[in-house]
Amino acid sequence: MADLFKEKWDVFCENLKDVGSIIESESSLSETDQAEGYRYLLRLMRLSLEMNLEHSNPSTPSFYNLSHETAKIGADNPDNIYLNANIVGGQSYEVYGNVGESDYLSFGLKENRYSKDGTMISLGEIDLRDMMVDSAGNFILYLGGDTNSKNFLPLPENANMLIVRQTYKNRISQTHAKINIKTVSSTAAPELLTPSILETQLNQSLAFVKGTASTFIKWVHEFKTNHKNQLPLGDQAFFQAAGGDPKICYLHGYYDFSKDEYMKITTDIPECEYWNFQLENYWMESLDYRHFPIHINESSAIVNEDKTLTINVSHHCINKKNNLITEGRNNGAMLLRWIGASAHPIPKVEIKKLNSKGAS
Q1: Which of 153, 185, 220, 354 could, after both became Cys, cross-link 124 (CB 3.0–4.6 A)?
Q2: Same domain, 184 and 207
Q3: Are 74 and 158 in the same domain?
Q4: pLDDT, tens digit, for every residue of 22-46?
Q5: The domain containing residue 12 runs over which residues?
């Protein structure tokens, strides 16, 4: 039996080693991009093990964070708290708690196929504006089963994940939502770990890392080629097929400019529930929003007199309003998102020279 475990462990380690080929296959990476690429794979493995090993018992569903401050996937939003739960299609669940002071709260049923073809298909969405919540902010959302409640999503057989997006205009100071999940169609039962189960969980974890990294590096190639120093509308159906919220319009771009330059972004602001703009690294991880000004939203932005918005992006801080920094990177991805917008204006993006005072 010990030899069997060693064999499975050795196979896992060899396959993990091979995942590094995703980084090695990228040409002309800077030293920073290379180092962050390997860190990205390690972060994905942390997230994947959490998802597949620690939250895998279908009779005891629980929430985990598939993106957070130090492990990130696919242009994660710094204003969000993400919750994910593994579910089983055809069963029934109750999601319950208190909405806190969230500015946007949505629940999305998904078929997570990142480990297969890089998609995360939406199977049903509902957000706070479509739900009944009591005067204290308490709610129950029913997934599957038979109910007359307005707070309901049918649960297809191919559903395997619930994603909760909590969005805050000031995530630090606002009271966060408290959200729980339980199954009501089966009885909670312990599940002893076996060699077969462990092997499956390890294989699923590796497949998720490889599939996720492969998916978003393709996005970066597209943005680098066709969205360089631009924020075009792009194919919204494509973005949503990878797990995006259908109510959100995503304007992805790729920045690339020298240290003696800065990027000036000017846009109209449509009527919407929320908007923000963020900077990312080459691997589409949001930059370190814990410590540096790398994103902006309607709460933190200074709007122009004509109600337009100007964002000034530089490698290091300059004396300009709405100044975000790349933390010294020359290149990376970026994203502007509108939620529930009445229109989707395309920003004007200009690369300008810095002078001795920090701006042209």
Answers
A1: 153
A2: no
A3: yes
A4: 999 998 899 999 999 999 999 999 9
A5: 1-49+196-215
